[in-house]
Amino acid sequence: MNTDAPWLGVIADDFTGASDVAGTLAGAGMRVVQTFGIPDSLMQLDNVDCIVVSLKTRSVPAAEAVKESLVAARALRSRGVQQLYFKYCSTFDSTPEGNIGPVADALRKEFVPAGQVTVVAPGTPALQRTVYNGVLFAGTDLLQESSMRNHPLTPMTDSSVPRLLQAQTRNVVGHIGYSVLEAGTSAVQSRLRSLSDKGVHYAVIDTLTDRHLAVLGAAALQHPLVTGGSGLVGGLAVALGLRDTPDSRRDARPSGPAAVIAGSCSEMTNVQIDTFRQSRPCFLVDPVAAAEGRDVVGEALLFARENLADGPILIHSTTTPQEVSRAQEELGQARAAQITEDSLSAIAEGLVALGVRQLIVAGGETSGAVVRRLGITTARVGKEVSPGVPWLTTKTGPGLAILLKSGNLGTRTLFLDAWEHNR
Ligand SMILES: Nc1ncnc2c1ncn2[C@@H]1O[C@H](COP(=O)(O)OP(=O)(O)O)[C@@H](O)[C@H]1O
Ligand SMILES: O=C(O)[C@@H](O)C(=O)COP(=O)(O)O
């Protein structure tokens, strides 16, 4: 695609979710740039098909999330993007107050013609997230019975997407079942029109397969605003017919000393750390000890100095749900998260000063804290190591190959073998 203006402008509510969507678009042959924070008008973002803006708005107060998302959307529109995409988690990570509903409401109000329904499609089959009769599944588990029920910041205890969204908005939430998706694009378009005519503002869409997402992508291609997980951007790309345009994957990526920083307490991150630990050294950062005044940053960097020369190292606060509860009881949820994020981002800064040039960060909030601390504002999106997990090459801040891993994404050996994909 060679028009001057980018086709798609994505507003992602966390940094790993942004990487996920950026990797999906790059995998579909798009030229993608990922920004961390809102791009100002001077930022060079030329010759791209998609701009993915990473925000850290999933767990902040709703009013703040709305304000930032609107500014991001306006910045994207001022660069001529044809379609806006609000990317939230495939497990609909949110609280009863938001922030998915309030942000979507605000974007609708400014960018969607009155009376047009907006698509809501968290389902991302490539990540084993499917929506059936409006109910969200993570693999074979109902969302509320999956490990997401124990998330430190956004525990998910209901699986019904219409019910979750309706609690967050005064707008009317409807649903389109998978049989309509099976019937094809015209059937979906006509059902979307009929929901609009009935005064419905949001249509939660069943998505069980990539074929459903391709059908939905074709049906929603002309919508000024689309919302969902990373699956639907793949559907839009298929509908647009884009394949194999020259992309950024030939960028030379930095190599050199390698480290993992993990603040994600998700099930898969725990498994990935257990796998790494069998052959490589790990260091645990305890937020309670940090709150008591222990120099966890200094200790972690001493560990790094002693081990970096031998190969990748891992520094984590990742722990079991029981240990997270213990820290939260001691410090409060917000303070435990803040201390952890502050410690891990200071450690990341120290690691870069020690010469680390390949960095994996596990966890969306954690990635937000680390990337901000390192002063990185843009990155070119490259090879996916596994679905939703691409290497990025920083264009500002320290020259790094950086991989931002969502809590539950990636294979169990990711921390050991991702480095081979950074070539
Ligand atoms: N040991 C811990 N105790 C309490 N909170 C923690 C601990 N380790 C990490 N956290 C916090 O849990 C949150 C994990 O969220 P995030 O980084 O987005 O991971 P994920 O991608 O798995 O959702 C972060 O705010 C992090 O600071
Ligand atoms: O949609 C997804 O599953 C991911 O892109 C995502 O947003 C995951 O968030 P974190 O688990 O908080 O990294």
Automatic annotation (TrEMBL):
Keywords on record: ATP-binding, Carbohydrate metabolism, Kinase, Nucleotide-binding, Transferase
Listed InterPro entries: 4-carb_acid_sugar_kinase_N, 4-carb_acid_sugar_kinase_N_sf, NBD_C, NBD_C_sf, OtnK
Four-carbon acid sugar kinase N-terminal domain mapped to chain residues: 8-235
EC numbers: 2.7.1.217
Molecular functions (GO terms): ATP binding; kinase activity
Class of enzymatic activity (EC top level): transferase
Pfam families, A to Z: NBD_C, SBD_N
Span of domain Four-carbon acid sugar kinase nucleotide binding: 259-415
Catalytic function, reaction form: 3-dehydro-L-erythronate + ATP = 3-dehydro-4-O-phospho-L-erythronate + ADP + H(+); 3-dehydro-D-erythronate + ATP = 3-dehydro-4-O-phospho-D-erythronate + ADP + H(+)
Function: Catalyzes the ATP-dependent phosphorylation of 3-oxo-tetronate to 3-oxo-tetronate 4-phosphate.
Family, as annotated: Belongs to the four-carbon acid sugar kinase family.
Protein name as catalogued: 3-oxo-tetronate kinase
Source organism of the structure: Paenarthrobacter nitroguajacolicus
